[in-house]
Structures are given as C-alpha cells and as structure tokens.
Amino acid sequence: MNFSKSPRWTRRQALWMMTGAIAGASVHACAKPSEAPSAQSSSSPAASTGAGAGTASMGITTWIGNTPLYIAQEKGFFKDLGLALTIKVFDTVAQAFPAFTSGQLDGLAPVTSEAVTLASKGVDFKVVTVEDTSVGADVILARNSIKSIKDFKGKKIAVELGGIGHFFVLQILAEAGLTAKDVTLVNTPPDAAAAAFQTGKVEIAYSYSPFSNQAIAAQKDGRVIYSSKQMPTAIADLYIFSTKFVQANPKTIAAFVEGNLKGVEFLKTNRKEGLEIGAAKLKIKPEELDQQLKGIRIPDKATNVAMLGDANSDQYLLKPMTKLASFLKDQGQIQTVPDLTKVLEPQYVTAMK
Question: In terms of Cα–Cα distance, which of 23, 220, 4 is closest to 118?
C-alpha cells in the first residue's frame, strides 16, 4: 500500500518551522506559492474600478477544510459580493508566514496552535471565521493489547515532533496523568507513522485520515484508541487577516466571510456538485472527499457565532486557545502566553442575515 505524502493533508506543520519563518520575514518575504485559478483575480472589474468590496489575498494549503472556499470561488460568490479574491496555495502554512507578516498576504489559514504561536511572536491578526474543526480525522492508533492511554507508559509513540499531532498526543497523555517523560516519542510524519503501525514497527502512532484508515484496514491487530472526536476543540483551522487590513477594509472582510459561508451552505444543499468542485481542486474523487469530510466539522454561521463570540458557549474558541497557549509554554514551544482576548472577531459572522 502506498503511503506517500498526500498534498491535501499538509496543513498541519511543525511549529519549530515558524520561528525562523517569522524572524526571517524581511529576508524571505517572497515565498513561492502557486496561485489558484480564480474568477476573482486581480484583473476583475471589481478590482480595476475599485467598486464593491475591493481586493484581498488569502494564503492556504491544499486541504479538505477549504472545500467551501473552493465552492465560493468556483460559483462566483465572492465576485457577486464585489470581492476580487486572490488565493495563493502554499505547500505548508509555515511557508506563508513571511509573506503574511510582511504584509504581502492579507489573510492566512492556520491551525489553532500556529495562530497561538503567531500571537506569541507579536503578530497582530483577527480570526474572522472558523474553517473547520477536527472531529475524528486525527487519531491515535494502538495495538489491541494496549487497553488504555495509561498503558502507553514505557511505550514508543510515532508522532511528528513539533507538529499539531505532538501537542495532541501530549494533551491526551496529560488526561491520563502521564507526560512525555513516561513515553518515547519517535519523530515520524503522519503518513510514515501510519505505515510503521501497519507494518508492526511501532505499537502506537498518531496519524490522520486517509493514512490512518488505510493502516487500520490492513493491520487487524490495532484500532483507534483515541480520536479528535473526544477532544473536538483541540484542533481547528482558522481564517485570519492582519488587524491592520481588517480595520482598513471592513467591507472586504465582510464579503470574504459571507462568500465563504455561502460556500458552506452550498455544500449542504447541493452536496453532489459541491463535492465535485472540491474534489477537482484537491485532485481526488468526490466519494473520497465525501468520506474524508466526515472527520471534520465545517461550521455554519450559527456555529461560527458561538465559536467566535459567545463566551457562554462550550464551543467558544478563546477557552481552548488560551489553554493551548499555556500548554505550549509549559512544553517550551513558546516563550510567553499571548493575550488572545482580542484575537477573535465575531462581528462579521454576527452581522450576516
């Protein structure tokens, strides 16, 4: 079975890449992204005349959570709202950090741990809408003889050090009263970790679909012992814009948020066509995308309002992000816990009719 790297799953990257990326922003500001073909390119009438919502650039990776964005782009939702959106595709989110911090990119799609780390480095941004949350896509695989997380003590765990899976594993260990000192973490990318588990080289591994699904299908002595479904706010992908850009271009942000949420609704009401659009961008089959989307939740307007603006909701992102920041500091991944109280910007989702 082929476990070669799949580009659609590359948005989870090691945080150790970020320090150099942010520090070197002025030197390496011109990363080499590919530009997604777009009906909302900079040559559109809205951009050339200055009409409507204006222009914006968004840096993303090839990832299933962007399916509504692809739909909004393909169906002309952004264009209808007067937004000329340029989408730039990077191999990793970390590659886009220099362009974002230097102002060459207006927006970015980081995972929560990356957003926290950006904030800890003094990068000023706003989370204007939530792309997706992992509700089962991220998993811990274990041999059948391992009955609980407490049984991880003294075992080797294949996980990419510094990546989001690393922190996911550490949080799971903490729930069971264990720390990294109680196990041996073997630095292994998610695809290779699944392959190592499948071939019997490791007893425990962190990975995600489709790699984890393939491994379990081929290796009968093993199962998913823990998944992100049990920790649904631990891993989320976000759409952020620099605060300076948000303040100067409120109509642009409103159009981006509305267009993307129109893509979310389209996927719900016209799923077949929505899957075809997303699958074409991701270079996979629609049925594959349909299956993989089951591991994430793409929030609609109401869920976005709860996640970004309802302090009384158990979905409110400030709580898990603040907890994550403290956790990252305790693990030595960031030097200071940033003030995240002003990072979430709910006004654009709450303003939608």
Answer: 23
- Are 122 and 143 in a shared domain? no
Phi, psi for 263 (deg, rounded to 5): -65, -40
Q: pLDDT tens across 309-320, in order?
A: 999 998 999 988
Six token digits for residue 245 = 């850009």
Strands 125-134 and 236-242 turn out to be antiparallel
Report pLDDT digits (tens) over 187-218.
Answer: 998 889 999 999 999 999 999 877 888 899 99
- Cα 267 to the center of its chain, rounded Å: 19
- Regarding whether 167 and 76 lie in a shared domain, the answer is no
Q: What is the CATH number of the domain that holds 204?
A: 3.40.190.10
Question: 145: which residues sit within 8 A by CB, 6+ positions away?
Answer: none
Tally of domains within the chain: 2
Same domain, 160 and 25: no
Tens digits of residue pLDDT in 275-321 = 999 999 988 899 989 998 998 999 999 999 999 999 999 899 998 89
Supply the range of the domain harboring residue 175: 138-230
